Amino acid sequence: MVAAHGNNYAIGNSGRPSHYDLEKVGKDMIVWATNNPKALTVPQFAVSIGVHSSTMIRWCKENQEFQESYMIAKELIGINRLNSTMNQEKDKPRLEGNIYLKTIGNYDGDVHNYLHDEKTYEAELKADKDQKTTPIQINLVDYSREIKAKP
């Protein structure tokens, strides 16, 4: 079996590629995300090189340089997504703003960290509220003596 047509990333000439030049894949992903305003998801690129997006995540764990390129490309994809929400030309497709807002954390590391910290803080507040008990002091007055004492 020959490697997929146009697959310039595979090392070797025949058979299913068992090894990819991750440095080249990472650099090309950055170029793809930079020069392609329709680059809106990582799986689009993964499919174009003949791999599943989960393979790219595995590559991030295995190769620090690829991981850095992957993160840069994700940020560029996030910019493409933002620009797509602002596209006002009638003849071009437009990404809905609420879709962008729901997925921004996937593409922008700072926003992802902010959203994570915000959710963590809210969870801590809720946990504190649920665990804190407010002591209530009740002063009981025994009126039975007063009632008995009256003629």
Topology overview:
Elements lengths: L21 H14 L6 H7 L4 H10 L1 H23 L10 H11 L1 H23 L12 H6 L2
CA radius of gyration is 29 Å
Provide mean pLDDT, rounded: 76
Give the ordered list of helices and strands.
HHHHHHH
- Percent of residues in helices comes to 55-70%
Low-confidence stretches: none
Largest beta-sheet details: none
| Portion in strands | under 5%
Would you count the extended β strands for me? 0
Span between termini: 111 Å
Shape: elongated
| Count of alpha/pi helices | 7
Protein structure class:
mainly alpha
Structural commentary:
The model has no long low-confidence stretch (mean pLDDT 76). The chain has helices at residues 22-35, 42-48, 53-62, 64-86, 97-107, 109-131, 144-149. α1 (22-35) packs parallel to α4, α3 crosses α4 and α5 (97-107) packs across α6 (109-131). The protein is an all-alpha fold and 151 residues long. The longest helix is centred in the middle third of the chain and has 23 residues, at 64-86.
Highlighted features:
7 helices; 0% strand; 151 residues; elongated; single chain; mainly alpha
Please give a quick description of this structure:
The chain is mainly α. The protein has helices at 22-35, 42-48, 53-62, 64-86, 97-107, 109-131, 144-149.
